[in-house]
Write a structure and sequence with these properties.
The chain has about 190 residues and is mostly beta strands. It has strands at about 5-15, 20-30, 40-55, 60-70, 80-95, 100-115, 120-135, 140-150, 155-170, 175-180, 180-190.
């Protein structure tokens, strides 16, 4: 976080029929006000997002982001200077087929650190979800997700897998609703 800070944000949104495009810009500067004892630090970020509908039942979202952080060394707390950049993108598609809802999402994020290159890393992931009311009193929802983080020998490669299923029973005569969940979560690391 940036102490003793001042900043500005700007959001622009424009619609084109069924499509909406938005741009969010942000800049924060700290340690530069009169009498400040905090080291100088700056953070700038930008997010561009597109939302559109291919039909009443299919929607699509695409977004990209970039953030830069720079700062002087903190001699009081013996912290090094900062100089890193993060950028990435994500895309998602959602469909409605009768009572069934489906969605797919992909993400990518890259972090580079000029001061500590060993902290550089890349994260990739994908998620699938599906669910809906099969009959009036019974619904079923499921999620499958996978994330991989890779970096230097210090960071290694880390994989995370998640599978979950959640049925939903309603018993009107008893005024009762049951929502059990079964989940499987597995993590693997090249460092262990």
């Amino acid at each position: 976080s940036i102490a003793d800070r001042e900043g500005a944000d700007l959001t622009l949104t424009k619609g084109f029929g069924l499509t909406t495009v938005s741009v969010q810009l942000s800049h924060i500067r700290g340690g530069s006000t009169s009498g400040s004892v905090s080291p100088s630090a700056r953070e700038s970020s930008a997010v561009v997002q597109l939302n559109t509908a291919f039909s009443q039942r299919v929607t699509f979202q695409l977004a990209g982001n970039v953030t830069t952080n720079t700062g002087d060394a903190d001699t009081v707390h013996q912290l090094p200077k900062t100089d890193n950049r993060a950028w990435g993108a994500n895309a998602s598609l959602a469909e409605t087929l009768g009572a069934l809802s489906l969605s797919q999402a992909l993400t990518y994020q890259n972090v580079t650190n000029s001061v500590m290159p060993d902290a550089d890393m890349t994260t990739k992931g994908g998620t699938l979800t599906a669910g809906g009311q099969i009959v009036q009193t019974f619904g079923l929802f499921g999620t499958a997700a996978f994330t991989r983080t890779e970096g230097s020998a210090t960071v290694g490669r880390n994989d995370q897998t998640l599978l979950s299923i959640q049925p939903n029973w309603t018993i009107p005569a008893l005024g009762l609703s049951l929502q059990p969940q079964v989940a499987f979560n597995k993590g693997e690391s090249s460092l262990t």
